[in-house]
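for the recovery benchmark. C-alpha cells below, seq after
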C-alpha cells in the first residue's frame, strides 16, 4: 500500500522521526504541529506537507485534515503523536486548569483526530491508527498524574477503536515509549530534580537503571515500530499497547531516592 499519512506533532522529536521514516519508505506525509517555526524548518522535505495545528482545537484539526486531503488525495495512516508533559507535582498541588490542559492535548487531540480520520480510513477499506501512549499508561508515573492518566486513557481509546474499526479492515494500536532521549526528557528530569531536591544526573541514572537494557530509547526506535505497525507485516496486529522501552523492570523506583 502506498501510504498517505497524517502525523500530529510531526515537526520535531518522535513525530519528526516517524515522518522521516515514512518518507524514506516512499509515503506521502502531512504533519500538523503547533510551532510554525518548526514547520518552516522541515518544509523543504520532498513528499511532506504541513499545517500549523493545535490538537486541542477542533476547528484547527479540521483545517489540518482539509489541507492533508487536498495535498495527498486520501488517507491510510493516522499517527496521534501530539502530547505535552503536563505538570510535575504531587496530585494535591496540581491545578485543575493544568490537569485539563494536559488531557486536552494528549487525549482530546487523539479523539478529535480519530473522529476526522475514520471516515477516510473506512473509505480506503483499510489502514491504521497509531496512538502514542507511554509506559506511564501501563504502570503509572509518580508526580505526573495528569500525564499518566491521559496515557492510560489513550490505551482504552485504542482498544475500543480496534473493536469498532476491525470489521472495516482498519487496525488500531498504541506504542508505549519508555524514556526517550532528547530535549523533552531533559526537561522532565530537570523538573523532577527541582521537585525532589536531587541532582538531575542522579535521576537520569535511576531512569536508566530501571530498564533491563539499561538504556534510554531513541526517536528512531519509535519510528521503526510505527512503520512496522502500518505495514503488511503487522496485518493481524490490532488493539495492542506495545512497549518500546528496553523493558521497564522497576517502575516507580524513583520514589526510593
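predicted aa per position
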Amino acid at each position: 500500500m502506498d501510504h498517505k499519512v497524517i502525523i500530529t506533532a510531526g515537526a520535531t522529536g518522535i513525530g519528526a522521526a516517524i515522518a522521516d521514516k515514512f518518507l524514506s519508505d516512499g509515503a506521502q506525509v502531512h504533519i500538523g504541529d503547533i510551532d510554525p517555526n518548526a514547520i518552516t524548518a522541515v518544509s523543504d522535505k520532498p513528499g511532506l506537507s504541513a499545517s500549523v495545528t493545535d490538537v486541542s482545537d477542533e476547528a484547527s484539526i479540521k483545517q489540518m485534515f482539509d489541507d492533508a486531503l487536498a495535498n495527498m488525495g486520501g488517507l491510510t495512516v493516522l499517527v496521534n503523536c501530539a502530547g505535552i508533559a503536563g505538570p510535575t507535582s504531587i496530585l494535591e498541588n496540581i491545578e485543575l486548569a493544568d490537569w485539563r490542559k494536559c488531557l486536552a492535548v494528549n487525549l482530546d487531540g487523539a479523539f478529535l483526530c480519530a473522529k476526522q480520520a475514520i471516515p477516510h480510513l473506512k473509505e480506503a477499506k483499510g489502514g491504521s491508527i497509531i496512538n502514542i501512549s507511554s509506559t506511564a499508561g501501563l504502570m503509572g508515573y509518580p508526580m505526573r498524574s495528569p500525564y499518566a492518566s491521559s496515557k492510560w486513557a489513550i490505551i482504552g481509546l485504542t482498544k475500543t477503536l480496534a473493536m469498532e474499526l476491525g470489521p472495516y479492515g482498519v487496525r488500531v494500536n498504541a506504542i508505549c515509549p519508555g524514556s526517550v532521549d532528547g530535549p523533552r526528557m531533559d526537561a522532565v528530569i530537570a523538573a523532577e530534580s527541582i521537585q525532589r531536591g536531587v541532582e538531575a544526573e542522579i535521576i537520569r541514572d535511576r531512569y536508566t537503571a530501571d530498564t533491563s537494557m539499561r538504556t534510554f530509547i531513541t526517536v528512531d526506535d519509535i519510528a521503526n515500530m510505527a512503520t512496522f505497525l502500518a505495514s503488511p507485516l503487522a496485518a493481524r496486529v490490532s488493539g495492542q499497547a506495545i512497549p518500546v522501552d528496553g523493558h521497564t523492570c522497576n517502575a516507580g523506583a524513583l520514589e526510593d531516592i
